[in-house]
Amino acid sequence: MKKRPLTLCIILLLMMISTAAMTASLSVTLDAATPVGEQARALTAYICELPPAQQEEWLEEISAFLTSQKTFFAQPATDREETIVYVTDKGQRYHSQTTCSGLKKAINISGVTKEVALAMGRTPCKICYPGGD
Ligand SMILES: [Zn+2]
């Protein structure tokens, strides 16, 4: 029983690191107004107050969360919906980079997620996506 808080802290530390990595790569925070470290500390304090049975539930939940994060980061960047692509106001394509020759004449280039580009009905540019996507 005495070992549990230490295990809990290690897992929370891992979660904090993982959340920080996620925040850095996706520019997303759980709550933009509060630093991630502070949120993790608050969560740690909250869990340590709980009865052991509930701590166990949290451990399982956190483990599941960590596993899902690992799966997410193991995917190639192009498979993530958060991949940023570039579109123009009138173009029918989306591009992987602003330096693409297909964007030479473009005036307004916007970076959007691939999900958004697809929702706009855009198809992959044949120059920057020779394989189709
Ligand atoms: Zn292109």
What are the main properties of this structure?
single chain, 133 residues, mainly alpha, 2 domains, two-stranded antiparallel ribbon, two-stranded parallel sheet, 4 helices, elongated, binds zinc ion
Brief digest:
The chain has 133 residues and is mostly helical. Helix content is 50%, strand content 11%. The protein folds into 2 domains: 4-74, no CATH class; 84-124.
Question: Secondary-structure map with pairings?
Answer:
Elements lengths: L3 H23 L9 H14 L2 H23 L9 E5 L4 E2 L14 E5 H6 L3 E2 L9
Parallel strand pairs: 2-4
Antiparallel strand pairs: 1-3
Helix pairs in contact: 1-2, 1-3
Bound molecules: zinc ion.
Zinc ion binds next to loops.
Q: List the helices and strands in order.
A: HHHEEEHE
Count the strands? 4
Placed side by side, the strands forming the largest sheet appear as 1-3
* Helix count from the secondary structure assignment: 4
Low-confidence stretches: 25-29
Estimate the mean pLDDT confidence: 77
Domain count: the total is 2
